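Researcher: Go.
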Amino acid sequence: MRYAVIMAGGAGKRLWPMSRQNRPKQLLPFIDGKTLLNIAVERLNGLFDDDKILIVTNDEYADQVAAAVPQVPAENVIGEPQGRDTAAAIALGAELLAARDDDATMAVFTADHVIRPLEDFGRCVGLTCEWLDVGHWPALADVLDGDDSGNVIVSDNAVVMDCNRNIIVSEDDHLLAVVGMDDCIVVHAADATLVCNKADSQRLKELVNVLKKEHGDRYT
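Model: Structure:
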């Protein structure tokens, strides 16, 4: 029997301040109001039955993941007691499937990619598809349309003037007004705001570690 294993662990530090320890990146509704996990499960429609999909995630995210994709049986959401690495997550999925089905074969997917065109994915997982890793803020420009100046705006209440190629995100109706900025990231969350150059986006892991050291879990 054919099974799909979706890896949905990791906190996504490079998507701070939206992604936190208690709300990982795969559960953020960035793409047309859908989470990356929703999209990962939906693109398997017609390829795998819902009960043949396993999701491996951190134990602390298991309940949130199960609630986010109710079409997948709750017992198929596997919480790792301690996050390791990709190989360990794949090995766990393989071990569980082997115990369930002697004839199991599995395909492994991740919950933090946008894959297109979807039609090619359905025919052949891989060679002709474009796999886009939505693991840091600049990647949104690869999966979302920008305005005429290349600004990607994920907000219902943002005003930009003389701005080019920025990533601007807000999760509520807080007004974001951005003037005269190029190639920057502006992200507003309920309790924190990020402003940085796109070239420094990979340093967000470092920033999150500093925040944890100075403020504990309050902002991470």
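Model: Residues 146-215 form one domain.
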